Structures are given as C-alpha cells and as structure tokens.
Amino acid sequence: MQKDLTNVIVIGAVAGLVGGGGVLVGQEVYQNIQNSNSPARIKAENTTKLSSNDTATSAYNKVANAVVSVLNFKQANGQYQEASEGSGVAYKKADGSAFIVTNNHVIDGAAKIQVITNSGNKVMATLVGKDALTDLAVLKVDASAISATAEFGDSNKISVGQQVLAIGSPLGSQYASSVTEGIISATKRLVEASSENGQGNGGSTVIQTDAAINPGNSGGPLINLAGQVIGINSMKLSTATNGTSVEGMGFAIPADQVVDIVNKLAKDGKVARPALGIEMVNLSQIPADEQQKTLKIPTSVTGGVVIMKVNNGGSASKAGLKQYDVVVGLDGQKVNTLADLREALYKHSVGDKIKLDYYHGNTKKSVTITLTQQLAS
C-alpha cells in the first residue's frame, strides 16, 4: 500500500537545548591556506583509486583535530543562555585567525558564538559572514586555538556507493568528534529544507548519504577515505505525525559549492546571487498529457525546467521569456532539472551575460540574458 509521505520533511540537524540543557531533537520536522588573500580550494583526488592505507581510521585522524563544536548563545533578560549546538570544521589559517565553516542555522540568531576544539578548549568566535540560501556560515577564532585544518576534495568526482564518514557532535558537545560511517546514496538531490524553527532555506542541491546524521551534526564534515571534506552535513529526513519510518537519509552540502560560498563570505561577508526572475518546476512534475496540451513541446523533450511565472522587470522578462517556456540549457550545459539550472546559474555573478536555450511551444530558441541580483527574501 502506498504511504502518505506529505508529512516527511527535511530538518536541519542542530541540537537545541531546553532549560537546564536537555537535548531537544528536531520537531517537525580544503587545501590548507596560509595566506589571507588565497581562497579555499579544491584538491582533486581520484576516489576510485584509494591506497590500501586509506581506511576509516586514517581518514578520521586526518580531519579530527579540525572539527569543532559550535555553541549558539542567545540573550534573554540580560543573560546569555546556550540555545543550540552544532558542529564545524576549520579549513584555513591566515593573519592570526583560523576560519571555520558551519551551517547558517547553527549560528542563526546568536548573540555570542563559542567554539569547543577537539582538545576541549573553549574559545569565542566571530561571525565572518553567512548565507541563508545555502545554509552556510564562516566563523573565525584565534589561530592558536586550532591545531589542524582540513582540505576540501572534489565533490564532482564522488560516486554512488562510495564509502564516507560523518564527523561532528551529535546531541551536543558531550559527544564531540563522533564519527559515523556510510555510503553516498546519491550524488545530487534537490531538496526543500527548513530549519528547526520552521524557516525555509529554499531548494538545495545536496549529497545524500546513509551515514547517521543526528541533531548536533550540522556543520560538521562529510569526508572520503582520503580524509578530504567532500560535503558539510546539513540536514536529515524526519517524520511528523503519520508514523512513516525514515532511516538513513541525511544530506550534505557539496564541497564544490561550499568552497565557492566560503570564499565569497570570507571576502564580502555575504553572497550577491544572480537571478533570472522566474518561478520554475521540473518538467518531470508536469503530466505527459499537459506537456503536449499546455506546453506544446516536442515529445523528444524529456528534461528541462518549466517557467510557471515571470516576474515583471526581471532578467527573464526583459529577455522576452514567457510562462510555460521550457528551459533546456544554460551556456551550453544541459538543464534537465532545477538542480542543474541552479548549479549552472550560481557559477555566474550579477551582471554576467548568459545564453539560455529554451522551448516556446515546439520551437527551440536561444536568448542572451544579463543577470540581475536576487532580492533577499
């Protein structure tokens, strides 16, 4: 019998604290850089040809000292109270500071942020920048507090079935540096996410893994057996009230996306993101009869993104795109899904010109669009 999955939702994996410190589980829910002018980078590694010495233990040991617990303190009645805990990973040292990537929802609303290192030292952190859409944030602490930094691996070279480890502080810092093992279940998923306060994070292209990711793991690294960070653990599937059982479905932000965002946050403290000014759905979500009746596209078109609304004054509107046009390519890169479109789009900057391939009815067209800035939600 088919089960109703409408109440199965994605939550951020952050450990919330109530009163005296009990854990509240979610409800409904980088190559080291020593020069501050140098960005974080991907270190390519052929994950299909690991040596016999690349084991879970050796991989963990390469990263463990770079992993931290991140504590969110909020102010109430003139006092600071610990509100939630998550994880983070140091990825570079520069100019006397160590830089740490974590999730935006881990530090959201914090009046003060504290980091606990793998050795147990506690140090106050400064927020460098944050980005709600990708759910990423960058912190910095005194460099002397961090004994090691992690390197990023190429998340474009990961494979389904590849062994991975998730490291973090599940249920809080009392379980700091816990490691869980699993595989990559899917290299790309587009999921709608909400944090534990119910705030939507928008669609995210993420790595799916069956490595256990629990509240408190948010912001910690997902690593390959070479000890490289291939993702930042961010969320998991949970169940609401219908009793549907969900196991082994966690998600991590791909390292390639992380590196792009942390470099922008370290430079500007925010991300100026380009936009097309359209609302879209995957072509696969449109019934076959409606694809012919309403969209009027050729039967040979099996992938793409359908424009459901064109915002007045936006890039797409100025370029003449219309409702029910089907986008199939961006700058020569094939677009089958929203994930493909967003990945290609976010490689560009505000003001860039892009070439968009699309179907207007059964006619394939191309247009050059100048990207405008996405408005803050």
From TrEMBL:
It comes from the Bacteria. It is an enzyme of class 3 (hydrolase). Residues 274-362 form the PDZ domain. GO terms for molecular function: hydrolase activity. CDD domains: cpPDZ_BsHtra-like (cd06781). The keyword Protease applies. It holds the Pfam family PDZ_2. Its EC number is 3.4.21.107. Keywords: Hydrolase, Protease, Serine protease. The keyword Cytoplasm does not apply. Belongs to the peptidase S1C family. PANTHER family: PEPTIDASE S12 (PTHR43343), PROTEASE DO-LIKE 8, CHLOROPLASTIC (PTHR43343:SF3). This is Serine protease Do-like HtrA.
